[in-house]
Specification:
The complex is a heterodimer of chains A (707) and B (259).
Chain A (H helix, E strand, L loop, with lengths): L1 H7 L2 H22 L6 H17 L4 H23 L9 H23 L17 E5 L2 E4 H23 L1 H11 L1 H6 L4 H23 L8 H17 L5 H21 L4 H18 L34 E5 L4 E5 H6 L7 H5 L3 H19 L3 H26 L7 H19 L3 H20 L7 H19 L12 E2 L4 E2 L2 E2 L3 H24 L1 H11 L1 H6 L4 H27 L1 E2 L6 H14 L4 H18 L9 H13 L6 H15 L1 H7 L34
Antiparallel strand pairs in A: 1-2, 3-4, 5-8, 6-7
Chain B lengths: L3 H4 L3 E10 L2 E11 L4 E5 L6 H9 L6 E6 L2 E2 L5 H8 E3 L12 H12 L5 H5 L7 H14 L14 H13 L5 E5 L7 H18 L2 E5 L3 H7 L2 E6 L2 E6 L1 H6 L1 H8 L4
Parallel strand pairs in B: 3-8, 3-9, 6-7, 7-8
Antiparallel strand pairs in B: 1-2, 1-4, 4-5, 9-10
Helix pairs in contact in B: 4-6, 4-7, 6-7
Classes of the chains: A mainly alpha (707), B alpha/beta (259).
Chain lengths: 707, 259
């Protein structure tokens, strides 16, 4: 018992910080409908400001006040105003992508602004962190631990008082139930939501500043891990209960210390501790019935007038939305198949969209250039882009077409690469076969992920897959037989019989082939029967199953297919680089992958390919800048989420529709590139069509759009 | 308790209960639908009508009780299997496939029946709809009067048309039992009348059994043979429409007055 006590007490400060995170997450989720993954980044920003100010000679209390009570709320209000308020009623993906993007971008932006990471170890807020002020039993309590404990108590006290005894607290609870009805009762829901953001931002800042002394240096990674613990706490609170979230966070903090104390050292304890959130998520997520953000008025609403573009996902060839005077129509498969003028030749079909022709022309030009004059380092970048394009295509299939959000796609890619490398290394298997084997094993892993998460969708699915990625990073990939930890795995370049793909141009051709096959698979599936079934599942899983689609099997199948494609892409990338380490495909990369492809375009095969090229080109371009700007790519995509919420169809589709309009207006261009079919003239950008204002008056809870 | 052999009803639910937390949504409820019969279910909000549908179709698992459809116990079967056995349903809160066209809604339902995802045929570029499938879609589009809107994405449709899309989608499986959850809510008088006539057409043409949850008593009266009243998860009354509506017990529960 004493031993348990000795293990448990040092866990309390951790628990307090986890609890602060969990409560803050639940608070904004309830008040604004957005699960704010950028919370970890907000904590980092405040902590960075605090340490930097102290390093500049500010007294610690002043630095603490400014970073927690000034900077924190300012960031929070900005996020609310510029971003999260717009997407209250959007689909889970549109809600998730901005916060994910900011989770990665905000710390990098702060680091660029700050110039460098502070050299001094992070100090504690009020007290001498190391000095022991008291003893609890035989456990010494340092100033750090006492300050964390005290601050948490104060925050909890303030929260309880606020919700119980103040009008603002009452209004906040009302907004959570139904923003529209609350507005009708004369309450400014926007003001209340802003207040909730201020509150939760203070908590993020406090958590960050309090916790930072535990680490010898400020590192955004630590705060992301902290966030995952906070998420686990919030899930214990079922996204809804502040007290439960508080208790959950505390229990997690104590629990992880106790586990670490009792378990033997080695892979089990070092691996199990970080994966505790995953286990918690998997156990508790099915119980957290998603709050549908629908209010009592929603059943009398006409269907869906919220953000139109976001619902479109993958555009199969049968539903190309075009305008013809009186609103959006679809030139459908229906139209063509039932009322055919004559059978359509593949060439005519190819020529139907001028933008497609343009894309082919640009692509052909790029390939020709790559094969002739492009210098070696840029050829490498292009090949990297192609390999990533394959991985992005797996997301087009999984998220764009079937609406399943995966935050462990990099894990699948990594597994594919490791398998190819290990097989070549140990068994001398040709790398091309290794790539296939890697894809197959990744597909198996996809099934392993899909089965326990079958009952989850939207945000809970995203969180569960995130936790799975974390688990794989900690437990699976460090082993020498798979990812070999920091050392990584060598993946040789392949050769097929007499043809060797060792030289960079020949490897480029191989990559191109793999990309073409992957793109073909994704396109054929998307435009075929399965694509229609997947679109139905994306639209409404309930309705899909009640018309007789075996959603369970369909979901497992699409997860396997997508994971397999990601695995092939990962193997391709590994073979290109010559070696692969778990850090190349850790859970943060998964988040980045989703953000990048969502911004560039989940709606088409072109989108994924362009995403790969753009991502790698930006990476390459940043290496030419001073090292201070190393995180610039993350910042660019983080800021691009601001426009993503306006154009959730993605950059490529948006640009495509604009181009289409331009070409249609220009006689020479339309002669050159094809005019498009009748009625397929200028396509209006689909978003913003049915939008009203953002002040909570947007129709809430369109079908399937909740959570 | 109904004897499935003697009266041979299509659907027999016996003693079904469902609890959500502390709320007893259904309590020891028994309910049956004859072949070709149309049953209306009315009851105050929160009476358990939608929960009854969810339980019959399998969207919610039963706490107790059994459901027999056409002589087969279905209460442990997954939703899609029950659906393929011939149960179609619509939703009070629309569950449309956003972004898809009206025709695609019906086509999906048609292709779902086949039970294969046609992945290999898709990969060989042979996965398109067959002529027979398209013909069936066309027929049902005519039946529910949506032929003109076939190529429209559902996102822009009005509520009246959207409810018809749901009806058409449910009809694609050639259901023997059609469960309609407040199909007239949000519709105006003309739209409701059109819905009623479509429902009568469907019954006349295909002999489909219908369960109709509805607040609009005029619609109920014009479509159903028998009326059930649900209150607090219990069956309050069941019988011919006029008789049930006249019963003082029902008037007390439903209208809050016994006069």
């Amino acid at each position: 018992m004493t031993q348990f006590f000795n293990y448990a007490v040092p866990g309390i400060p951790f628990g307090c910080v986890f609890a602060l995170m969990a409560v803050g997450l639940v608070l904004t989720y309830k008040a604004s409908g957005v699960f704010n993954l950028a919370f970890g980044a907000q904590a980092f920003v405040s902590a960075l400001a605090f340490v930097s100010l102290v390093q500049d000679g500010w007294p610690r209390w002043a630095a603490g006040f400014v970073s927690v009570f000034v900077l924190g709320p300012v960031v929070g209000i900005l996020l609310d105003r510029l971003l999260f308020r717009r997407i209250r009623t959007a689909s889970p993906l549109v809600k998730l992508v901005p916060s994910l993007g900011l989770l990665v971008a905000l710390p990098q932006l702060a680091l660029i602004i700050a110039g460098s990471t502070p050299d001094i170890p992070p100090p504690a807020l009020f007290v001498n962190a190391q000095r022991v002020y008291a003893h609890l039993g035989s456990v010494p309590l340092s100033g750090l631990e006492l300050s964390i404990f005290g601050c948490t108590l104060v925050v909890v006290g303030v929260l309880v008082a606020l919700f119980r005894f103040t009008p603002v607290g009452l209004e906040m609870r009302a907004v959570v139930e139904s923003p529209r009805l609350t507005e009708l009762a004369g309450v400014n829901a926007g003001r209340i939501s802003a207040f909730a953001w201020i509150l939760s931002s203070v908590m993020a800042g406090l958590a960050g500043v309090l916790l930072s002394p535990l680490y010898s240096q400020l590192d955004p990674q630590n705060f992301t891990v902290l966030l995952v613990w906070g998420i686990a706490g919030a899930v214990i609170g079922r996204f809804a209960s502040l007290p439960l979230a508080l208790v959950g966070g505390l229990a997690l903090g104590v629990g992880q210390q106790v586990l670490a104390g009792y378990l033997p050292a080695g892979i089990i304890s070092t691996g199990l501790r970080p994966s505790l959130p995953f286990i918690v998520l998997l156990v508790f997520l099915p119980f957290s019935r998603q709050r549908q953000f629908d209010d009592p008025l929603s059943s009398c609403d006409p269907p869906s007038t919220a953000l139109e573009g976001e619902t479109r996902g993958y555009q199969s060839a049968s539903t190309l939305a075009v305008t013809s005077g009186d609103g959006v129509h679809a030139v459908g498969l229906w139209h063509r198949s039932l009322h055919p003028g004559r059978p359509e030749s593949p060439w005519r079909r190819l020529a139907r969209r001028p933008t497609t022709n343009l894309a082919w022309a640009v692509g052909a030009l790029a390939v020709l250039s790559a094969l002739t004059w492009v210098p070696g380092d840029w050829l490498l970048t292009m090949t990297q882009g192609i390999a990533f394009g394959v991985v992005f295509l797996s997301l087009t299939l999984l998220t764009g077409m079937s609406g399943q959000i995966s935050l462990c796609q990099a894990t699948f890619a990594g597994l594919g690469g490791f398998v190819a490398g290990q097989l070549a290394d140990h068994y001398g298997l040709p790398v091309v076969l290794g790539m296939v084997a890697g894809g197959l094993l990744a597909a198996v892993l996809g099934v392993i992920v899909a089965v326990p998460t079958l009952r989850l969708a939207g945000l809970p699915l995203a969180l569960a897959t995130l936790a799975f990625a974390l688990l794989a990073d900690n437990v699976l990939f460090p082993n020498s037989w798979i990812g070999n930890g920091a050392g990584g795995v060598t993946v040789p370049r392949p050769s097929l019989g007499p043809i060797s793909f060792v030289a960079s141009r020949s490897f480029f051709v191989l990559s191109l082939l793999v990309l073409a096959v992957t793109a073909g698979v994704v396109k054929l599936v998307g435009d075929g029967t399965m694509g229609r079934l997947l679109a139905a599942m994306r639209g409404s899983e309930v309705a899909a199953t009640s018309v007789g689609i075996d959603v369970t099997r369909l979901r497992i199948l699409v997860f396997a297919l997508s994971a397999g494609l990601a695995g092939v892409g990962g193997a391709l990338f590994g073979s290109l680089e010559g070696s692969l380490s778990p850090n190349d495909f850790n859970y943060q990369i998964s988040a980045v992958l989703l953000v990048v492809v969502a911004i560039v375009g989940l709606g088409s095969v072109t989108g994924a390919v362009v995403a790969g090229l753009v991502y790698e080109t930006l990476q390459k371009a940043v290496t030419t800048l001073p090292s201070r700007y190393a995180g610039l790519v993350a910042v660019i995509f983080g800021l691009a989420t601001l426009s993503y919420t306006r154009h959730p169809e993605g950059f490529v589709d948006f640009l495509g529709s604009r181009l289409l309009a331009l070409i249609a207006r220009n006689r020479i261009a339309s002669r050159l590139l094809g005019r498009g079919e009748r009625g397929e003239g200028p396509v209006e950008p689909p978003s913003g069509v049915g939008r009203r204002d953002d002040e909570g008056l947007t129709p809430v809870g369109a079908p399937g759009g909740g959570s | 308790m109904a004897d499935p052999v003697r009266s041979d009803p299509l659907l027999v639910a016996t003693g079904i209960s469902k609890q959500f937390g502390g709320v007893q949504a259904l309590f020891e409820l028994s309910f049956d639908v004859g072949r070709g019969e149309a049953v209306g279910i009315v009851g105050p909000n929160g009476a358990g009508k939608t929960t009854l549908f969810d339980c019959l179709l399998g969207l919610e698992a039963l706490d107790t009780g059994t459901v027999v459809f056409d002589g087969v116990r279905i209460d442990r079967l997954p939703v899609w299997k029950r659906s393929r056995m011939g149960i179609g349903r619509t939703y009070q809160r629309l569950e449309l496939f956003r972004g898809m066209t009206v025709a695609d809604h019906l086509l999906v339902a048609e292709q779902a029946k086949a039970g294969t995802f046609r992945l290999w045929r898709d990969l060989l570029h042979r996965g398109g709809p067959t002529a027979a499938e398209l013909r069936h879609v066309e027929e049902v589009l005519e039946l529910v009067g949506l032929a003109d809107l076939a190529d429209r994405p559902v996102d822009g449709l009005g509520l009246g048309h959207a409810r018809l899309v749901e009806l058409g989608r449910a009809m694609m499986g050639a259901p023997r039992l059609l469960m309609l959850d407040e199909p007239s809510s949000g519709l105006d008088v003309a739209e409701t009348e059109r819905l009623a006539s479509i429902l009568r057409d469907i019954r006349a043409a295909q002999g489909t059994s219908v369960v109709l949850v509805e607040h609009d008593l005029r619609l109920v009266e014009s479509v159903v043979d028998r009326l059930c009243v649900l209150n607090f998860g219990r069956m309050l009354a069941s019988g011919p429409v006029a008789e049930v509506l006249a019963s003082p017990e029902v008037r007390l529960a439903y209208l809050g007055t016994s006069r």
